[in-house]
Amino acid sequence: MGMRGEHGRWWNNPAVVEKLKLTDDQRKAMDAILQQHREKLIDLRASLEKAELAMEPMMREDQPNEAAAMSQIDKVAQARAELEKANARFLFALRAKLTPEQWKQVQEFRASHDGMGREGMRRNWERNGRRQGGDDRRMTPSPQPPSPGPQ
Question: Three-class SS of residue 2?
Answer without folding.
Answer: coil
